[in-house]
Design a protein that fits this description.
Family: Belongs to the class I-like SAM-binding methyltransferase superfamily. TrmB family.
CATH superfamily: Vaccinia Virus protein VP39
Enzyme class: transferase
CATH class: Alpha Beta
Helix content: 25-40%
Strand order of the largest sheet: 3-2-1-4-5-7-6
Strand content: 15-25%
Distance between the termini: 29 Å
Keywords: Methyltransferase, S-adenosyl-L-methionine, Transferase, tRNA processing
EC number: 2.1.1.33
Number of helices: 9
Radius of gyration: 17 Å
Number of strands: 7
GO molecular function: tRNA (guanine(46)-N7)-methyltransferase activity
Order of helices and strands: HHEHEHEHEHEHEHHE
Shape: globular
Oligomer: single chain
Number of domains: 1
Length: about 230
């Protein structure tokens, strides 16, 4: 199967949608809190993406696969003038994030709880300042590599929605996925890797809060790479 056909053939880039049963409060948050933050990528695309937010924002950032929300909420609180769109298809992770904002929903945050491809295809061209893909599902078995989110077709999507000079940031502790991403971005030709020395890509991003996936990697003896690409 070619990369260009993987999504259309129904091969999702994520695995299971739900884990252990939700507690009553978590289920209630999905019903009552999520709709206030959710975007609808099947409706009309906004002319100005800033209109999605109650806050006055001047930059726009997308995080694909926010997990438990540690990084996303850290950035949301750190950068009130940035509008954030967070995407996470795993129900339990969405519920965890909602539990942290319940009753004080940030006005610079919007969420989507399904496939990121729908949002990427809905966003206006040249509308984002940054895309974060942090510790994505590595699909470690070779036969599953075609399901990795970094692909030529998704890099085309990134390139379309990023502003000129916009950033694509990728972090992983899986060597094969790090190499995969570097090779795919080089092959694409629309992204410039910003590392000048080894220390550049082994050093976490500024004000990095860490994530639970990163903590697990450290416990298991794996280091991480933090790759930054600019749209050219």
């Amino acid at each position: 199967m070619s990369e260009n056909s993987q999504h259309e053939a129904g091969k999702a880039f994520f695995g299971r949608r739900k884990g252990k049963p939700l507690r009553d409060r978590q289920a209630r948050n999905l019903e009552e809190v999520l709709p206030a933050l959710a975007i609808d990528p099947f409706g009309p695309s906004p002319d100005d993406l800033r209109s999605l937010f109650a806050a006055e924002v001047n930059t726009l950032r997308l995080e694909i696969g926010f997990g438990g929300g540690e990084h996303l909420l850290h950035r949301v609180r750190e950068e009130p003038a940035t509008g954030f769109i967070g995407i996470e298809p795993f129900v339990n992770s969405v519920a965890k994030l909602l539990g942290q904002v319940e009753g004080a929903e940030p006005d610079n945050l919007r969420l989507y709880d399904d496939d990121a491809v729908a949002v990427l295809d809905w966003l206006p061209a040249a509308s984002l300042d940054q895309i974060d893909l942090l510790y994505p599902d590595p699909w470690p078995k070779r036969r599953h590599w075609k399901r990795r989110f970094v692909s030529q077709v998704n890099l085309d999507r990134f390139h379309r929605v990023l502003k000129p000079g916009g950033r694509f940031c990728f972090a992983s502790d899986i060597d094969s996925y790090i190499n995969w991403t570097l090779l795919h971005c080089r092959r694409h030709g629309g992204f410039s890797w910003q590392a000048k020395t080894a220390g550049d890509w082994l050093t976490p991003y500024d004000n990095w809060p860490g994530t639970r996936y990163e903590a697990k990697a450290r416990r298991e003896g794996r280091s991480s790479a933090y790759l930054t690409f600019l749209k050219i």
